[in-house]
Amino acid sequence: MNTFTDKHFPGRDARIVVGGFLLVLLLVLAVIASFLVGRLNWAHDTLGSIEPRYARLLGLRELQPQLEAGMNEVGAHLGRYAHPAAIDSARIGTDLQQRVRQIAETAGLGVAGSQILPARTHAGFVQIPLKLTVDGNLEGLRGLLAAFEREAPVILVDKLQANATPSRQGRGQPPGEARLVVQIDLSVLHLQP
Where are its TM segments located (predicted)? Predict the structure, then answer.
């Protein structure tokens, strides 16, 4: 009847062994094929998620000269707004206190007190605060605030509280200009190393 199987695989047991071996071989090949198909799908999904990021990186690489020019410009202007990292924070606070006292006196204000407050750390810089109390007239206060803006690095006004006290006048005299007592919370920025 079936001469090929009878000739090469004589007996029923030999055929079962060969059939079992072929079945196990097919199962192993199916598992390997399933694993390879899963890896292929993972590779396609990964490439699909990486492709937009890669395109963004290529775009940034093309913009690199413009980004570097922008960073150089920011670095050049940074000196206008913050003290360099090489200077000590305590020295900056002391210099700020002396400078503010001089500016206030130049503006015609009397300095009642000044106090350096503890520094506050932020991302990339340290804020060095100073509390200043001055007294004088409104024109002197305007001059003081205008002078803060002209300073380099800029002196920031965080809070300002002014109280007016009426001036004393004699009978028959016109009312005098009110005196101001002003508390100002100031700060400067210091780059972190």
Answer: 16-37
